[in-house]
Amino acid sequence: MIISIDSLAEKIRNNIINISTKHKLKLVSVALEPDKATLAYLNSQRNLSKKLNINYEIIKTNSKEELIETIKKLNDNRNVNGIFLSQPLPFDSHEVSIYIDPKKDVEGITPHNLGNLIYGKSIFKPCTADSVVRILNNFTEIDGKRVAVIGRSVIVGMPVSVMLASKENNATVTICHSHTKNIKEITLNSDIIVAAVGHPEFITKDMVRENSIIIDVGINVVNGKIVGDVEKSVRDIAHVTEVPGGVGEITSLILFENLTKTILYK
Ligand SMILES: NC(=O)c1ccc[n+]([C@@H]2O[C@H](COP(=O)([O-])OP(=O)(O)OC[C@H]3O[C@@H](n4cnc5c(N)ncnc54)[C@H](OP(=O)(O)O)[C@@H]3O)[C@@H](O)[C@H]2O)c1
């Protein structure tokens, strides 16, 4: 069974266009020596920006120093509403994300916004984590549910766990990672599973309860095709988001939705 994201996507799209038709908005994506895959992703971002009536620019840099200088200039540029830092980087992204103005941090990745997430007061929530939580809220009641989050990265696993366990959502969360013993026992005891591992077919049918809800965050390339972290057959017994098209589609839209919120801070 597939979890449809269509109504949520349409709602977010309409919210964005409502504001982008009244306000001039610009997103700048900065990348360090982008490879083909990165450029393909940034071009898909450009295509989406056109559909959403948002100005868009890609800036390519050649060194960490140039990347930081570019970010500082963008912080001071009043015509730029938001900054997207293309990842992965060949060093800890914290070394660069600390320079992004939190009010232009539409990805919600700066230490300021991530720290404030714990207080429930961040200006912008990390887009992928927010995508997971909003897909869940659109589909089910989260309050009181047991959730297994597989993955503890700074941009996905950790923030999604904080958000689900917050007083806004009231889930009981178990965070699993590469040192977790017997993940199957944990997933079988969960109503909801968030798979953010980055291993194709990591979640198999024997690991999930019937009628459970599974959010597949994974994006893996296998034989030139994009696949998630959840084996296809899991759909026979549980509700699962699609890859591509599920979390990723909502994540891309939330980035632009966050951009529309920057008008509050100008
Ligand atoms: N759809 C979207 O919008 C979107 C956005 C971002 C990322 N993604 C995708 O989501 C996936 C995760 O991304 P990420 O940035 O969070 O990746 P990441 O930084 O590589 O983190 C992966 C996490 O999975 C855990 N892990 C790895 N092997 C494991 C195992 N055998 N058992 C249990 N846990 C294991 C790791 O544990 P340790 O901490 O112990 O190493 C780590 O916490 C990737 O496929 C990525 O492409 C999708």
Automatic annotation (TrEMBL):
Swiss-Prot/TrEMBL keywords: Amino-acid biosynthesis, Histidine biosynthesis, Hydrolase, Methionine biosynthesis, Multifunctional enzyme, NADP, One-carbon metabolism, Oxidoreductase, Purine biosynthesis
Pathway: One-carbon metabolism; tetrahydrofolate interconversion
InterPro entries associated with the record: Aminoacid_DH-like_N_sf, NAD(P)-bd_dom_sf, THF_DH/CycHdrlase, THF_DH/CycHdrlase_cat_dom, THF_DH/CycHdrlase_NAD-bd_dom
Source domain of life: Bacteria
Pfam families according to UniProt: THF_DHG_CYH, THF_DHG_CYH_C
Record carries keyword Oxidoreductase: yes
Zinc listed as a keyword: no
Domain Tetrahydrofolate dehydrogenase/cyclohydrolase catalytic: start-end pairs: 7-107
Residues of the Tetrahydrofolate dehydrogenase/cyclohydrolase NAD(P)-binding domain: 126-263
This enzyme's EC code(s): 1.5.1.5, 3.5.4.9
Reactions catalysed according to its record: (6R)-5,10-methylene-5,6,7,8-tetrahydrofolate + NADP(+) = (6R)-5,10-methenyltetrahydrofolate + NADPH; (6R)-5,10-methenyltetrahydrofolate + H2O = (6R)-10-formyltetrahydrofolate + H(+)
Residues that hold NADP(+) according to the record: G151, R152, S153, I219
Coiled coil: none
Subunit details: Homodimer.
HAMAP family: THF_DHG_CYH (MF_01576)
Functional note: Catalyzes the oxidation of 5,10-methylenetetrahydrofolate to 5,10-methenyltetrahydrofolate and then the hydrolysis of 5,10-methenyltetrahydrofolate to 10-formyltetrahydrofolate.
Family classification: Belongs to the tetrahydrofolate dehydrogenase/cyclohydrolase family.
The protein, known as: Bifunctional protein FolD
Native species: Marinitoga aeolica
